[in-house]
Amino acid sequence: MMKKALVIMLILMFFSVFTAVAEQPEPAFTETALYSTTMPQNNDETDIYYPVPAADDSASYTFPVALFLQGGRVNKSYFSEFAEKLAAYGFIVVVPNHDADFTLTDPDYPGIEIDFVGFFPENQQIPDVLDFMSAENDTAASPLFGIVNKDIMVLTGHSFGSAVTIDAIQETCEFPLCRPEGSIFTLPEEVKAERRDILMEFQKDIALRKNQERVGKVEPVLVEGFDPENYLMTGRLASQAPDIDGQVILEKCEVEPGEIVPVLINQAADYDLVGEPVSKATSHES
Q: 155 and 75 in one domain?
């Protein structure tokens, strides 16, 4: 299993992913390559698309893995155009044909069974592909030798493939997305930790935008004390919880801790604000 592999759920509907964006960015690479192989972990016949840097590009690259989970009874060849485009944006795109053979039943209709045989994805493919990509990265004869980013894995899929990504992220293990029936699927702790880090990055962007909206406004701040790291007094807005949210760094503050004072916010960071106490008269004017 790759260390610190990150699974980011991207539910991308086939044929619409690139047209849904109003301003589509240019691909990072003009050339891609394809090789086909069989994964020893599950005997899946697999197509792998990857970026090819230009001949005069001397940079050293590693690329994150994007696992494309197919729809039910849809051959991997149907997704070749999509996979090639995705690879041009800097991903190693893995598109397996995953065979399935299972029986569906419905408790509301006892005795009725539906047998399914054909291509159908499942969440066990995720750790299988992680193991396979790790081995490919370490195999000198592989086209992927030394270029796999082991820290990031993207999930994308079509139809039932999208459903499998949701099931895997939520660890619900619902049959037939998770097989055999009654199985348990658990994302590795490293995956959960990396997912948390990514969510924190998203949250940081949101927090910065919200903080920027406060710049130029006067806000009531509870003065808490002296911060030796900044050599300044600090305080909190009513919306900033201790040890969870950011704080307000107070410049030119001569107010005792415990007092609530009006503060003009003049700078915004990811989580913290910077401001200066103002007179109550100024506060009413703003």
A: yes
Q: What does the alpha-carbon distance between residue 242 and residue 256 come to, in Å, rounded to a whole number? A: 18
- The larger pLDDT score, comparing residue 175 to residue 5, is at 175
pLDDT at 7 over 70: no
Token pair 């899929």 in the structure block, residue: 157
Find, among 242, 240, 34, 252, the residue nearest to 144 by Cα. 34
Q: 48: closest CA among 61, 64, 35?
A: 35
Cα torsion angle, 76, 158, 172, 194, sign: positive
Chosen domain end from 159, 180, 205:
205
DSSP-derived letter for residue 125 is: H
DSSP string, 131-158: HHHHHHHH-TTSTTTTTEEEEEEEEEES
Domain range enclosing 228? 215-285
Q: Are the beta carbons of 120 and 179 closer than 8 angstroms?
A: no
Neighbours of 264 (CB within 10 A): 17
| Residue 2 placed within a domain | no
Residue 169, amino acid: I
Q: Please, are residues 137 and 61 in contact by the beta-carbon 8 Å criterion?
A: no
Residue 267 has pLDDT above 70, yes or no: yes
User: Alpha-carbon distance 80 to 143, whole Å?
Assistant: 18
